[in-house]
Structure prediction request, 159 residues.
Amino acid sequence: MAVNVSDVVVRTAAGQERRLGEWAGQVLLIVNVASRCGFTRQYAGLQALQDRFGPRGFAVLGFPCNDFGAQEPGTLEEIQQFCSTTFGVGFELFDKVHATGSKTAPYDTLTQAEPAGDVAWNFEKFLIGKDGTVVARFKSAVEPDGAELTAAIEKALAA
Prediction:
């Protein structure tokens, strides 16, 4: 069954609630991020994806998560500062979430998409089509500039 995230409400870093449906018509890459992880360097690649595909209706949405190895212990302000100064991150970072255990939005919905199951680690990526449905899921080790991911983004943008 196709999982649609359009009605999922998430909390921005400023504490405002937003429906993911506000991004209807855009392709989204939702990523649980962490500042002290072996995959943290992927922030640079995620920003490169935002720069490359953003003008075509693509957005990276980052959700800081401290569930895996306590690798995102900072406050939102600390996280934003780190991402901005270290990696030049300009894509939107949201309030901290739980991607495992007592999951919070958007992960309570995302993890129902096939292949269903808990997020395994930081920097797992969910690709959302223009209609709000989850079209692909990529494990942490899939690099942002990997052919598998960029091809899936291209396909979703062309749909």
The chain has four helices and seven strands.
